[in-house]
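dude i think i finally got it to work??
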Amino acid sequence: MGAMSVRPDTEAAAQQGASNAPHRAGFACFVGRPNAGKSTLTNALVGQKVAITSNRPQTTRHTVRGIVHREDAQLILVDTPGLHKPRTLLGERLNDVVRTTWAEVDVIGFCLPADQKLGPGDKYIVKELAGIKKTPKIAVITKTDLVDSKQLAEQLLAVSRLGDELGFEWAEIIPVSAVKDTQVDLLADLIAPLLPESPPLYPEGDLTDEPEMVMVAELIREAALEGVRDELPHSIAVVVEEMLPREDRPADKPLLDIHANVYIERPSQKGIIIGPKGKRLKDVGTKSRKHIEALLGTPVFLDLHVKVAKDWQRDPKQLRKLGF
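look at this
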């Protein structure tokens, strides 16, 4: 069974060892079926909203990296899309991206919600993980605020057994709640020693190395997805055409003009996104603008247009154009 982790009483002991320990830096990714709490955990570790969170599966498309800066280590979080049985060309591409990423990171965290039984989806992922021999794997039981201690103990046992069944040992098994900020720091403490010795790979202030345009597109996409529960989240792609500082503005009152297109697959979806009298699109603009301004630290004028890119998920040329 993997080591169970409980916070030590004395932080002094840890500090003492830390001062002469070599600095470490490396990459980790969280895997797990959709809604296992991966993006929320990334945001909690980094302390700012970087990966998009949505309660629709499959919304994290790009490899968004959040960066955790610590005195002893720098942890770069790579957010891969969920691994699933592909139905489209896009699905197959995403799965290839996933496997390549897993082979390249230093640590893999497998996320399993405390309140859901271990299902076939989880087993499918862990089985794939078992094939990646060299990389240490941590089992992270998420959403512990939703269960009692008995349920939590059962889940810890189930995930430990799953490792045994597949013939590998978890480097650690740790329960966390990102929402309540329980044991999130401890998770970073456990990942740090598994990283290779290395100076920091990114400057101190960086939270992510995603180009700003991609992050802005993701924030718009997240806002566009919200509220369209039953319609297809996959059929929305966002491309930021340009981001330009507005000319002839005084230095102390800058304004950034952002022009972006929201692409959908069919003309019939246009009405869904725009909403009656354009209200829905306006809401999407207002909501994403707030997040974008927080991210870029500057006032923004956001110009949004909805366009149809016919069946873009199945068309390699469109996929390339939309950044996949």
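The longest strand covers residues 237-245.
im so relieved honestly
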